[in-house]
């Protein structure tokens, strides 16, 4: 879609406030944990899960700059993509409802159209989002060709002029928004630098791209892959660095050893870790991303992967799901 043409409204003032409090900077909490102390490591949690109840975590940081841009361009409608349990789709529905945009999501799996909605899709629909169920083949084709003018023309013909947000909402603007987490951290830990490793989960890579870009010299970002896609995720983060910041960064890497078997998979050892973490710290980690990240850090710490004296910060990118994704949920072929 060519944003430089077409009907527009005149630029208006900023977006109205979101319902519920917006907690920025998000809290930074030290966590006393013997598994880390034994390895001579400090651990902090950056509680992005507490940013806003309706649009939590990294989704707030990634969506806000995009919706501001849409508002400036006079776009009234947002179109995005996601799976049946997509946190991004729910966050877009909530943010659009709060800020007065119409929202549409193309959902992977046309077989879901006639079934009762799961809690995630029901939540999105309750915010007024229109769900369009598409086959996995169509979904894949659209996702991969979103940047192509022909795809944009096709989507604009069908859905009208929209802000097109890619899967997971990760684009250059989103990465710039996600850099806010690092900027806050630098203010909360004034000596943030060479002894710091800041970790976050990686789904589509926008959060890691922003985190790495926003860290001060010497500090390193560690992304924990939540899906099995070595190589691809690195390409995505590099692409987002080019798109959002016009340069490359050398202070990050992606761990591919702790995705638990693939996206959405929660193997028994991960579930056990999450329950134990909750019992010890009173914080139930979200399973698909946050628990994988925390468990990865704990296992790497036990292996001696971090030099003693390292200060680890885990970004808690979102709150736990109200209900887990069923283990037998249909999955795309990968
Ligand atoms: C969406 C999401 C992620 C993944 O973020 P990306 O920017 O897509 O890599 C991580 N954690 C939580 C809780 C999420 O909802």
From TrEMBL:
The keyword Metal-binding does not apply. Its cofactor is pyridoxal 5'-phosphate. InterPro entries: ACCD_DCysDesulf, TrpB-like_PALP, TrpB-like_PALP_sf. Residues 1-21, 312-334 are annotated as: Disordered. One of its GO terms (molecular function) is D-cysteine desulfhydrase activity. Keywords: Pyridoxal phosphate. Residues 25-318 form the Tryptophan synthase beta chain-like PALP domain. Gene3D superfamilies: 3.40.50.1100. This is Pyridoxal-phosphate dependent enzyme.
């Amino acid at each position: 879609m060519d944003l430089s043409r077409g009907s527009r409204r005149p630029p208006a003032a900023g977006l109205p406030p979101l319902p519920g409090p917006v907690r920025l900077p998000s809290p930074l909490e030290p966590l006393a944990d013997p598994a880390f102390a034994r390895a001579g490591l400090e651990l902090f949690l950056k509680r992005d899960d507490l940013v806003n109840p309706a649009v939590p975590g990294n989704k707030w940081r990634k969506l806000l700059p995009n919706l501001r841009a849409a508002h400036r361009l006079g776009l009234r409608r947002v179109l995005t993509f996601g799976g049946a349990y997509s946190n991004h789709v729910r966050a877009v529905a909530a943010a659009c409802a709060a800020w007065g945009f119409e929202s549409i999501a193309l959902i992977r799996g046309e077989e879901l159209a006639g079934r009762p909605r799961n809690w995630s899709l029901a939540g999105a629909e309750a915010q007024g989002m229109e769900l369009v169920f598409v086959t996995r083949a169509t979904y894949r084709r659209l996702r991969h060709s979103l940047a192509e003018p022909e795809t944009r023309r096709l989507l604009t013909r069908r859905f009208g002029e929209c802000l097109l947000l890619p899967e997971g909402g990760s684009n250059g603007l989103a990465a710039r928004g996600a850099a806010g987490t690092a900027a806050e951290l630098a203010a909360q830990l004034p000596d943030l630098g060479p002894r710091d490793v800041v970790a976050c989960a990686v789904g589509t890579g926008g959060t890691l791209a922003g985190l790495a870009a926003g860290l001060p010299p010497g500090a390193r970002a560690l992304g924990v892959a939540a899906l099995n896609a070595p190589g691809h995720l690195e390409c995505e983060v590099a692409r987002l660095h080019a798109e959002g910041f016009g340069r490359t960064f050398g202070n990050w890497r992606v761990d591919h050893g702790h995705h638990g078997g693939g996206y959405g998979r929660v193997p028994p050892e991960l579930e056990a870790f999450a329950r134990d973490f909750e019992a010890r710290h009173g914080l139930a980690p979200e399973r698909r991303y946050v628990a994988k990240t925390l468990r990865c850090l704990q296992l790497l710490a036990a292996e001696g992967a971090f030099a003693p004296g390292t200060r680890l910060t885990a970004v808690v990118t979102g709150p736990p799901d109200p209900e887990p994704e069923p283990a037998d949920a249909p999955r795309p072929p990968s």
